[in-house]
Amino acid sequence: MKNTSVFTGRSLCVIEDFTKEERLYLFEQARILKRAMEEQDEATLSRFRIDDRDFGIYEVFLEDSTRTKESFRNAANFHHAKVSELNSDSSSFNKGESYADTFFTLSGYSNTIFIVRSRLEGVCRWLEESCSAYAARNRLWRKPAFINAGDGRHEHPTQELLDEFTFLEDNDYSHEELHLALVGDLFHGRTVHSKADGLTIFNRVKIDLIAPPELAMPELYVEKMVDNGFEVRTFASIDDYLDQEDVAKKWYFTRPQLERMGEQILKREAQLRHAITFRRDLLPNIAEGTKFYHPLPRHKQHPTIPTFLDSTPLNGWERQSINGMYVRIVLLAMIAGTIGSEFKSSVVPKSVQREEYIHEVDLAGRQPKEKVISEGVQPIHNGLVIDHILRGEDPTSIRDHMRLISSVLGLDEAKGGEWVSTGGKERECFKGIIFRPGNVELSRKHLKRLAAVAPGCTLNLIKDGAVAHKYRLSLPPRIYNFEDLGCTNEACISHPDQSEGVPALFLRRHDNHFVCAYCEKPHTFKEIWKSRNK
Ligand code: CP
User: Fold this and answer.
1) Has this prediction a pTM greater than 0.90?
2) Strands of 291-293's sheet, edge to edge?
3) 67 Cβ below 6 A of ligand 1
4) Smallest CA separation from ligand 1 atom 6, residue
5) Which DSSP state fits 341?
6) Counting atoms of ligand 1 from 1, which one is nearest the CA of 156?
7) Cβ–Cβ < 8 Å for 436, 384
8) Helices (H), 49-121
9) Cα–Cα distances in Å, from 168 out to 93, 202, 244, 253, 315?
10) Taking residues 396-407, what's their average pLDDT?
11) Which of 43, 67, 185, 445 allows an S-S link to 256, with CB 3.0 to 4.6 Å?
12) 296 lines ligand 1 (CB under 6 A)
């Protein structure tokens, strides 16, 4: 059995799956490997090679690729490892087979690392989860690992690794600061989306976003950058950018993916391309030492970095592309070989605390109140009262939301009603009340649903004119296990229209928004419930 390390068998679904410290370790190894390759230092190179005859990679590319696919193939060749490939055009995907069933099958044939490119967002996270369970129930001796080779508009973490490595190379390996201009189609480009978390390896980051509004960076990634402490500025075109003085010395261009946009946008195609394409007349405005990068491919008719720049010192993109193989050799050597066996993390893993969000109020010793609800509503003798719904919001939103809560809890057919009130001393503070007289049973699952759809509410279960049980419900840390919910991102593997059978899973963020565990789209709790399938 070979030495294992913290990296053994790990998946890389998003760039944050490897911590900053782990990525910096990977880059140090890539630097050593690259030098050894240039010097043909066989002793060092052999230290990197995976000594495992059973090791292989499995490439499953459901979208086109040259660099990612071929650099992984050549990285595997370096390790003398077998490379398998699923021909998706002639596979049983075409017979309607799901991702999970396809990868269960492949996992059973080989203990391997899967390199997956798909238009479906979050696919690797789902496969990591579902194939681990498959490996356990079938007693596979090693669970498969998944490397995301680009999923829709979401992330491209191995491109991010090679980009970061190239920026470090051009920063004398200092990760103190980075000033980077991102130019082009920032809306669709997954390589620039990975930068929101990826560039956290640098202590100080200034990002200039250069794109016309139609191609602007989605707000979610801008927010992530700001949350990560980056200084972020926006410009509508390269000309606008060069009209001011604080110009970055590193520019990262991306390919406009106008084919993904509607006809209205295509009418403005020439204008949009002009805004993000570098021109010869701009050269005098570029400071010495500036480098341009591009994840490639560039379009042969409309390159945003024109080919006349290939032989200039601005050219950083060719070395960037070459670095892709070094970085991927090291990544494979960490996941399946011995590179990293001496790595010790200084990060103390956070202990997972169970968070209680359904609090039963101890009623012992409390004097029963005469009335449970007021303002013209008769107190009920038996039944339930949900109080303090959306406290502080406007009456219309509260009424709409109460209808939703009633439906979510399956209370539509029962007697009773909904009421908007201004309770207690705060006369201007509205809140909603739902009451249902009679024998209404609520299970633990109902309480979880109520907490997720009406956080901050109080549930009173009334028996013989007195409150028998009282619960205060707060926002849960996760929303999951509800069959009627799905992610609202149509490109997400857990969106119901994808029919992949992936149960929705939302994780609460620091700002009380819920991100989809697969595609990371943020939602408010209201957004999650409004899109439910009834
Ligand atoms: N940069 C990149 O992902 O290139 P390919 O699409 O050719 O893999």
Assistant:
1) yes
2) 231-235, 204-210, 177-183, 250-253, 291-293
3) yes
4) 65
5) T
6) 3
7) yes
8) 67-78, 99-109
9) 40, 9, 26, 18, 16
10) 96
11) 185
12) yes
Q: Which residues of 141-162 are buried (b: 16+ CB within 10 A; e: fewer)?
A: eebbbbbbbbbbbbbbbbbbbb
Q: 215 C-alpha to center of ligand 1: Å?
A: 20
Q: Which helix (H) or strand (E) holds 323?
A: helix 317-336
Tokens, residue 53:
């005859």
- 209 closest CA partner among 178, 175, 186, 240: 186
Predicted pLDDT at 119: 96
65 ligand 1 Cβ < 6 A = yes
What is the rounded radius of gyration, in angstroms, for the C-alpha atoms of the chain? 28
Q: How far is the CA of 295 from the centre of ligand 1 (A)?
A: 7
Position 377 confidence tier, pLDDT thresholds 50, 70, 90: low
H/E element holding 296?
A: none
First CA to last CA across the chain, in angstroms?
A: 51
Helix (H, G, I), strand (E, B) or coil at 254: coil
Average pLDDT over residues 475-493: 96
Retrieve residue 116's tokens.
């997956």
Q: Tell me what the mean pLDDT of segment 232-251 comes to.
A: 98
Write the burial class of residue 428 (CB in 10 Å: 0-12 exposed, 13-18 middle, 19+ buried): exposed
Q: From atom 3 of ligand 1, which residue's Cα is the shortest distance away?
A: 68
Distance of CA 381 to the CA centre of its chain: 49
Q: Ligand 1, residue 71: give the atom nearest the CA.
A: 8
Task: Kindly report the number of other CB atoms within 10 A of residue 181's CB atom.
Answer: 22
Q: Residue 209 has what DSSP assignment?
A: E
C-beta of 297 in contact with ligand 1 (< 6 A): yes
CB 330 within 8 A of CB 50: no
- Ligand 1 centroid vs 178 CA: distance in angstroms? 24
Average per-residue pLDDT for the chain: 94
What lies within 8 Å, CB to CB, of 404 at 6+ separation is 453, 529, 530
CA distances from 156 to 162, 336, 412, 438 (A): 10, 20, 45, 55
Q: For a pocket test of ligand 1, which of 60, 64, 66 has the largest count of ligand atoms closer than 8 A to its C-beta? A: 66
Which tokens sit at 127?
């496969």
**Separation CA 203–CA 171 (nearest Å):** 13
What the chain holds in terms of domains, given with CATH numbers, is 15-155+325-336 (3.40.50.1370), 171-297 (3.40.50.1370), 358-476 (3.30.70.140)
Euclidean distance between CA atoms 376 and 378, whole angstroms:
6
What integer is the mean pLDDT of 212-226?
97
The two three-digit tokens of residue 21, written as one number: 């410290």
448 contact partners, CB below 8 Å, separation of at least 6? 358, 476, 481
Rounded Cα distance, 237 and 209, in Å: 9
- Under a CB-based contact definition with an 8 Å cutoff, are residues 151 and 190 in contact? yes
